[in-house]
Amino acid sequence: MSASTNREPEPSDGLKTFGAVLKSFRKRAGYTQEGLAPLIGCSAHFLASVEQGRRYPPPGFVDRCEGELDAFGTLRVGANQLRRQKGLASWFREWARLEQEAINLYTYECRLVPGLLQTPAYARALFNERVPSLSDQQVEDQLAFRLERQKLLREHPNTDFSFIVDEHVFLRPTGGADVMRELIEHVLEATSPRNVELQIMPLSQGVHPGLDGPLRLLETPDNQWFGYSEGQKSGMLISDPKVISTLQTRYAKLRSQALTPEDSVSLLERLRGAQ
After folding, report:
1. Once rounded to an integer, what is the mean pLDDT over residues 248-274?
2. What local confidence, expressed as pLDDT, does residue 247 receive?
């Protein structure tokens, strides 16, 4: 895996400003990072990352900070402003916030490698071919936010991640052979922790419950389930229990029809060698 895969995006101005305000209120209340973190349900490392502008404040975090620091609603206002920043489509922001606290996160993809598993080179190849074209700055903004989201895999060891990806996604030479070889190597590494599971839906399967398109599901710490469905230029956050039940049933069927995690690794290793 190339060094660029591990490179953290530079903090955005909005995140840095929010972090500075949070730090100011923390110090005003007389807390160290180590003293405040357990009171608001996070680690000192996570709190430091937010204050440095390198992590997005997840749902519940801002409310707990407000209550503990008596911040007069200032942090809530700042968090609302963050949702309007560049780099994330408006319809995706709420889902991105929910991801930060998810205890289970399920993803089925039939179009491309899921964003949480992409390399910078693969993501850049996708952004460079967007229609209508993105400016250089827009490409960098999108790439920075994609890399920021990928911290979920590294920093949430108690979240269970499940990915099901159609085999043909790895056969498409997005960005060329070198980019795909690096991507497959990265996917194998990123899905090796015991809380991350990858299954490949083989071409031989034919008809399966995912033919209506990609789907995502997550469970929050209070055991609420949400779904997300994305189209060409829109997306929809789903909370209706009846729809969620249908999506859960479909995902369970997809899991049963996809290759096992072990066989999926073997397939990716063969594809890597063929690049």
Report:
1. 96
2. 97
Q: Which residues contact 160 (CB under 8 A, 6 or more apart)?
A: 103, 104, 105, 195, 197
Closest Cα partner for 207 from 254, 143, 265?
Answer: 254
Radius of gyration of the chain, Cα coordinates, nearest whole angstrom: 19
Q: Are strands 215-219 and 196-201 parallel, antiparallel or unpaired?
A: unpaired
Closest CA to 14 of 47, 56, 71: 56
Residues linked to residue 163 through DSSP beta bridges, in sequence order: 107, 198
Average pLDDT estimate for 20-26: 94
| Number of other residues whose CB lies within 10 A of the CB of residue 205 | 15
Q: What per-residue confidence (pLDDT) applies to 6?
A: 33
Q: Pairing relation of β-strands 225-230 and 160-166?
A: unpaired
Cα dihedral across residues 35, 38, 43, 47: positive or negative:
negative
DSSP 100-162: TT-SEEEEEESSS--GGG--HHHHHHHHHT-SSPPPHHHHHHHHHHHHHHTHHHHH-TTSEEE
The DSSP element (H or E) to which 14 belongs, if any, is helix 13-28
Q: Which of 75-79, 170-174, 202-206, 209-213 has the lowest mean pLDDT?
A: 75-79
pLDDT for the residue 36: 96
Q: Which helix (H) or strand (E) holds 271?
A: helix 261-274
Identity of residue 1: M
Burial degree of 234 (CB within 10 A; 0-12, 13-18, 19+): exposed
What is the predicted pLDDT for the residue at 59? 62
DSSP state of 239: -
Please tell me the least confidently modeled range out of 26-40, 72-86, 109-123, 239-253. 72-86
